[in-house]
Amino acid sequence: MGRSAKVLAGIPLENPALYHRIRFAVGDPAAWLQIEGEGAPEKLLIVRDIEMERAKQQVAVDGVFSPADFTPVGGLSGDRATATAQALAEWIQRKGVVKVITDRTLPFIFAWHIQSIGLEIEYDPDLGVMERRTKDDQELEWLEQAQRVTEAAMLMACQKIARADAKTDGSLHDAQGPLTSERVQQEISVFLLEHGYVNPHGAI
């Protein structure tokens, strides 16, 4: 039957499916694949060269590489996403893969380069779905930590409001001046950043 490869690719910080699979927060393109068909599955990752050492320490895969490790005959594009897609297609070809399976999040640039080497892509709507619906011990620990920091941020905001002086016009003031909702939101965002979290709905 030949070898098959499950593929997830894109930017981990923007692609929840890819991030959940590798648990590696990075804003550059990356590609994860699991090759099956001969012995135990082989899990591999392509990331930008400057992220390789960090990925080797944090990602549970059998190998971490950069696009330059799988340069096609025509060379790599200067565009990072294109280069990653080119390297992924070259890698798949070198591994003798005959079928590629992916989920709905695969960016078209990766699909196009895989198809350019003559392979069809099979869409699996269930790929990774059950894994994301259940939480392992590490994820439960992360949720508990996030909950503690969130509660601390809300306590800080409530205390700031409670300690503010109420003026006759109904406005609140503290040592920095008017305590507006925008200021409270900003301070919550700063608090979260200082503790390693972001407030996606906040403005700094």
Structural write-up:
- The strands form 2 sheets. Strands 4-3-2-1-5-6 form a 6-stranded mixed beta sheet, sandwiched between helices. A 3-stranded antiparallel beta sheet has the order 7-8-9, with helices on one face.
- It contains 7 helices and 9 strands; from the N terminus they run βαββαβαβαβααβββα.
- Helix 3 packs parallel to helix 4 (108-115).
- The protein has helices at 16-22, 52-58, 80-94, 108-115, 129-133, 137-163, 181-194, and strands at 3-10, 30-36, 42-46, 63-65, 97-102, 121-123, 165-166, 172-174, 177-178.
- Helices cover 41% and strands 19% of the residues.
- The N and C termini lie far apart (54 Å).
- By secondary structure, it is of the alpha/beta class.
- The relative contact order is 0.12.
Note the gap between the termini.
54 Å
Structural class: alpha/beta
Strand content: 15-25%
The share of residues in helices is 40-55%
Number of strands: 9
List the uncertain runs. none
Give the rounded overall mean pLDDT: 89
Q: What integer value in Å does the Rg equal?
A: 23 Å
